[in-house]
Amino acid sequence: MKTLIEPQHTLDIIAEADIIVAGGGPGGLPAAIAAARHGAKVLLIERYGFLGGLATAGLVTPILGHTASRSHTPIVAGLLKEMTERMHALDGAPGWEDACQEWGIRFDAEAFKVIADQMVKDAGVDLLLHTFVADTIVEDNAIKALVIESKSGRQAVMGNIIIDATGDADVAFRAGAPIQQGREFDGQVESMGSFIHIGGIERTTGGQQAAARESLRAAMEAGEFRFYGNGFTGSNDMHRDHFSPNMTRWPGDPTQARDLTRAEVGVREQVWKLRDFLRKQPGFENAYVQLTSLQIGPRESRQVIGDYILTGDDVQQGRKFADAVARGSWWIDIHCPLGHTYPVHLCIVECPRQATCPFWAAEHDKTMRTQADLYPPDNDWYDIPYRSLTAQKIHNLLVSGRCISATHQGMAGARVMGTCIAIGQAAGTAAALAARNHISPREIDVSELRAILTDDGALI
Ligand SMILES: Cc1cc2nc3c(=O)[nH]c(=O)nc-3n(C[C@H](O)[C@H](O)[C@H](O)COP(=O)(O)OP(=O)(O)OC[C@H]3O[C@@H](n4cnc5c(N)ncnc54)[C@H](O)[C@@H]3O)c2cc1C
Question: What is the 25 CA–ligand 1 centroid distance (Å)?
C-alpha cells in the first residue's frame, strides 16, 4: 500500500468537559444523561444530526432485553423506563406496564429522536452533532484529547474521562487500548443487516399476506434473494401503514469502508427487487419502498478487552457477579457470520449448511451451540459486571453499548438495546463518580455505584 505523510495540524480546542461521551446511541445517550444528572460537565459527540444510534439511524425496533428470559418480569428500568414513558406521552411507545407484557418495546424512531433531544437538553449536556471522533491524543496511558472532524475542520475537545459508545470502539482502537474482534479463530463477525419500511400495504388481507410470504419463501428457496427469512409482514413500531421487516443480510467487517459500501449497495438492490416482486403479488400492487435505514446495521465489530470478558457461558448460565451494574436476558443470537441466507439463520449445530461450512470443516464446531443451548434460564438474566466496562491500558476510558468487553458469543446476547441502555446508565453514573472524586473509573467504589444506580431506579 502506498502511504502519504500528513503535515502536523494545530488543533483548536473547542470544548472542555469532565466527561466526553463519543456516540449518542443506546449505549451513549443514557451515559451522557446519567453523568450530567449526577453533576458532571458532559460533552456528547455524535456523527449524525440526531441521537439514537441504530434505534433511529437503523430503524431498529423493538427494544429487546427489557424483561427476564422468556418472561414478563422487568430486568431493566431506570432510564429505559423513563425513555419509554416519554415516548408513550407522544404516542410513540406503549406505556411501561404494557411494554413489559410485550416481547420488545415497540416505538416510533422519530419519537425516540425528540425525547433524546429533550432529555439531553434537560440534563444540561453539551451536545455536538454532525461531528465525528476521528482520533485521540494519548499521554501517559490516558486520553488527553479527542480529535474531531466536522464541517468546521479538524479540531480537539478535552475531557478527564472518556466514554466510548461508538458501537465500534473507535476511541479505544485509536487510543491503542487492547481490543478484539469477532470469532476467536477467524475474526469473522455476525452479519450486518437492516430494517426497511414497506408502504402501500394497508389494503392487503391476512390471506394475501400469507400467500405473498409463501411466494417469497419459494423465491428464496430458489436463491433469488439474499434474505434470511420471509417474515416481511408486521411492524414493530407504533404505526400500521407499513411493514418494517428485519430480513436483509450482508456479511463483512463494519470497520471497513469497502465492506460497508458493498453491504449498503447490495442491500438496497435487494430491497428494490423485493418491491418489484411484491407488486406482482395479489393485494400488493401498491407496495413501495417507504424508507430504508440511514446506515446498514453492524451487529458486532470491535470489543474492548476489559477487566472481565463476558462469555457465552455467562449468558446461557445466567451468571451473576458481585460487581453487577446492568442485566441482560437476550440469548446467543448469532446471525451467520459468513452471510449465508435462507434457510440459514443462526450459527448453530442444526445449521442446514453445516456440511459445507468452514466452521465445521475447521473443527471449530466444538464451540458451536445447539438451539437448546442458546438461552439463559427461563425468567432469569445474566449480570453485566462493571469490569466489562473498564478498558485495559487506558485508565481514563470507559466503554458502553455493544463495544464492551465480551466474546463473540457473549456479545451476541448483550448487544440488544435494552441491555445497552442499562449499560449506558451505569457507565455515565460511574464516570460521574470518578470525576467527582478525581479518580480513574477503575478506582471507584463499585458498591457505591451500585447503590446510586439502585436509587436511580436501575435494576441490578
Ligand atoms: C439488523 C439489526 C437488527 C437488530 N435488531 C435489534 C432488535 O430488534 N432489538 C434490539 O434491542 N436490538 C437490535 N439490534 C442491536 C442493536 O441495535 C445494537 O446492538 C445497539 O443499537 C447498539 O447500541 P450502541 O449505542 O452500542 O451502538 P449504535 O446503536 O451503533 O450507536 C453508536 C452511535 O455512535 C455514533 N458514532 C459511531 N462512531 C462515531 C464516531 N467515530 N464519532 C461520533 N459518533 C460516532 C453513531 O452514529 C451512533 O449514533 C439489531 C442490530 C442490527 C444491526
Answer: 6
